[in-house]
Amino acid sequence: xxxLDKLKIGESGIIKSFSKKDLxxxxxxxxxxxxxxxxxxxxxxxxxxxxxxxxxxxxxxxxEEASAVVLED
Length: 73
Fold this sequence. Notes:
The chain is of the alpha+beta class. It has helices spanning 21-29, 63-66; strands at 2-3, 12-18, 37-43, 50-54, 57-61, 69-71. The protein has one domain (2-71): SH3 type barrels (Roll), CATH 2.30.30.90. It has a six-stranded antiparallel β-sheet with strand order 1-6-2-3-4-5. The chain has two helices and six strands.
């Protein structure tokens, strides 16, 4: 299972689902919809948070949240 937190800067993936139900609604409201392309743009110097590009804008999220985003293989 490939998750968003495992991507390297510049890598992309397609959102498949969410592994944590409690975070799913929050992520969907932020534009992380299944089927959307998501790209890792930046990682903070200490590794958390990360910046992603999704739905035409940049979004900052914690690695814990990123680990709940399951990507297509």
